[in-house]
Amino acid sequence: MEMRERWLQIEAAVEEETKKESIEDGHSPVKGGSEFGPAPEVDKMTPEMALAEAERFEEVIVEAADVSGIVEVSGFKVEPPTIPDVIEIIHGADDRVRVGNTTVYPWRTICHLEIAAPNGKAYIGTGAFIGPRVVLTAGHCVYLHADGGWARKIRVIPGRNGGSSCPSSGTSSVCPYGYADATQYTSVKGWVNNKDSDYDYAVIILPANQKLGNTVGWMGLANLSMGSLLGLNVNSSGYPGDKPYGTQWWNSNNILAVTGRRLYYRIDTMGGQSGSPVWRYKDGQRHIIGIHTTGGSPYNGATRINDDVFNNLVNWKNL
Questions:
Q1: pLDDT digits (tens, 9 = 90+) for 103-117
Q2: Distance between CA 5 and CA 135 in Å, rounded?
Q3: Banded model confidence at residue 266, pLDDT cuts 50, 70, 90
Q4: Does the CA dihedral 106-107-109-110 come out positive or negative?
């Protein structure tokens, strides 16, 4: 009975989500910091197209880049941020597993984010490299509506493995690739102007002389059909605030429901894991198919990499 009630809750929530209309130009890029980014992309998803898309079983992918080595970076010291006030959920027993060696691919491509909001508040989040200096994350990690808008600064620490702070220059066992301080971001109108979770995604652009992605690599991107996504076993790894500071934790589960712009699953997450990549592992390849953004009962959820999100990310990944 409990399982039947859970499915009824999921079906009701998905039905309500599907009724929502697209925001006009919702996927059009909005910039924070310096001027960059592609020409606007119009959100082309309609209810009719979503139904037609359910019959599509081909996939569109961008391949990953698995590279090795380390690089020294420099920057200024910041105090460790506080745990973000984002409610997330552990479903049943907490079966998250700590990533012990974060210098191994793909764990080194996943980044701990220390976020300085415009009003002085500090938060933590998660991101993942998708290009040499481009880190994919949640929109609410770069544009904080309740805290004044665009983040004043985000410290990006790939493959972090604990510790209260990184050295001001060079690398360490807890910050094996150093860090980069970013002040340039791109999100979309659906998030920045409308605060709509269907459009909750963004990228962080590292300084031009700190292309850490060329050192740690990045996972690929995939735009999969609804039929391919439903029931798919997926992975997610990030930096939860309820665990020792700066430690990375992984979990895996199946996708329970899909809409045109959202994915739903019971992967265990907590605050700090917003922006974590949700990826498929198949034939030795890893492709990100969603960006973790929300937690709740009976499921947690991600912004789906659909046609519009995929097109934006492909345009942004080589900035």
A1: 999 999 999 999 999
A2: 38
A3: confident
A4: positive
Task: Give residue-wise pLDDT tens across range 189-235.
Answer: 999 999 998 999 999 999 999 999 999 999 999 999 998 999 999 99
Write the pLDDT tens digit of every residue in 117-157: 999 899 999 999 999 999 999 999 999 999 999 999 999 99
- Of 27, 140, 287, 292, which one is the catalytic site residue? 140
Q: Is the peptide bond before 106 cis (omega within 30 degrees of 0)?
A: yes
Q: Do β-strands 285-294 and 220-223 pair in parallel, antiparallel, or remain unpaired?
A: parallel
Q: Give the C-alpha separation, 64 to 219, whole Å.
A: 4
In DSSP notation, 56-124 reads ----EEE--B--------B----PPPPPP-------SS---EE-S-TTSTTGGGEEEEEEE-TTS-EEE
Amino acid code (one letter) for 108: R
User: Active-site residue 287, yes or no?
Assistant: no
Domains of the chain: 29-316 (2.40.10.10)
Please enumerate in sequence order all residues whose Cβ is within 8 A of that of 248, keeping only pairs 6 or more positions apart, or say none: 98, 99, 102, 107, 110, 112, 159, 160, 161, 237, 238, 239
Identify whether the C-beta of residue 152 lies closer than 8 Å to the C-beta of residue 115: no
Element (H, E) at 19: helix 2-19
Which one from 274, 276, 287, 292 is the annotated catalytic residue? Answer: 274
Are 91 and 101 a contacting pair, CB within 8 Å? no
Closest CA to 140 of 274, 261, 240, 265: 274
- In angstroms, what CA-CA distances link 169 with 74, 155, 177, 264? 4, 13, 10, 40
DSSP β-bridge partners for residue 280: 287
168 noted as active-site residue: no
